[in-house]
Design a protein that fits this description.
The protein is built from 17 helices and no strands. The protein is mainly alpha-helical.
Length: 452
Amino acid sequence: MLQQLDTLIGFAVVMSVVSLLITIITQMISALLGLRGSNLADGLGAMMHRIAPDLDHKTRRNLIDDILTRPIISDSMMSMSETFWDKIPFLALLRKRWKRASAIRPEELLEVLKVIAKVELDQAKTALVELPKMPDQPFAMQTAATKILAGLHVTTLAANAKVAALNSRLPDLAQADQAQAAAVIAQLNDATNIALANLEKSFNAAQDRAKQWFAMNARLWTVIASIVMAFLMQLDTFGLITKLSSDPSERGKLIQFSQTTLQKKADEVFTNTLSSATIYKQAIERLTADGNTSGVVKIAVLANVGFETQATAESWLKDQAETNHLDSTALIAAFREAVKAVTKENYNRAGGEFSSLTDAFAQTGVQLMPKPYPAVFTEDWRLWSWPWDWRVTGQWSWPASHLFGILVSAALLSLGAPFWFNSLKSLANLRPMLADQIDQDEKAKSAKKING
């Protein structure tokens, strides 16, 4: 029984390490294709379509690209000016993706829209009457930005009631303490900023949608990378299990590596570093520790409070701001900056942990790639010949049992590194209990033989 468990642990170690490599590959592809910026652009496009549905697709995309590639918005290190790379179609597309910002705040978006529209919020509806008289092409983005601002400047009965209630409290502020008076004034400013409030509602939905799209794209690339790695490494699930069950030396190396390095690093990376709940909680803790925002030290994060989404964390902060008479706008802005900083630091730290894991695995001497590597093409194939003239040997993906084993490996790898690290942790925790049970059974048998 213990041998079978050790075989499973060894198999989980191999799958964890390969899944780790796939995670790194997926991150590289994500950075290469600028998926975060691209999905943010798609989310903003959906938001703008909801606010101003009569905008044509091309103008809306041009407006979004203009916003996300502005130097004051974009976090890209690339030059925002035109270069000769922009004249090469494929490179121009990549460069455009790289220049896009991967994150933007609602207040930043609102300010840029006002700059492009060249009007203030209360003038947007009036300006729309004049803009159609201008030439279409030069003023297309200006018209689009103005339409969006006009669509945002729409009040509701609830908003009007809230403004009236806050206005009624203004005469009593002279007798109130300074902190309470400042909080009421900040709330009044928030309530009267109708466009920003409406934008935040639409923006939060767009941001959640962009995150979902990014997760979907990352998942798709994980599946593709899993298939490629399974074939490239000739990772046959059934062959690997057979090999581990019959080779105690290699099985022992993998178990030792799991106990000394892999479990600890995996716990640090996937539980304490990269989870969204951890990042949001660390951002709030950093915010309260730094104390740069007025009154933020009054906020305390309880141990049992969890934040699965950014919207949940921001809603909690707004409640805290109202309870402690703080400026919620400044608090949310500071929180978003803290989230960006913590995310960047945690992913950089995870990259270092990934590198140390692969180095430690290489020291075990376990070979993942088969030696000799099976020939893919016959000896008479030539790279410069037509692809339909190439002839495969069949060794790379045949017989059928080997092909099926590789496809099973690809399916298992697509489950992702967190799944395999958690599985490995569960199996490793089970091992000492099983070993103790086997030891107790052996002692019981020995005692029975002696007494018998």
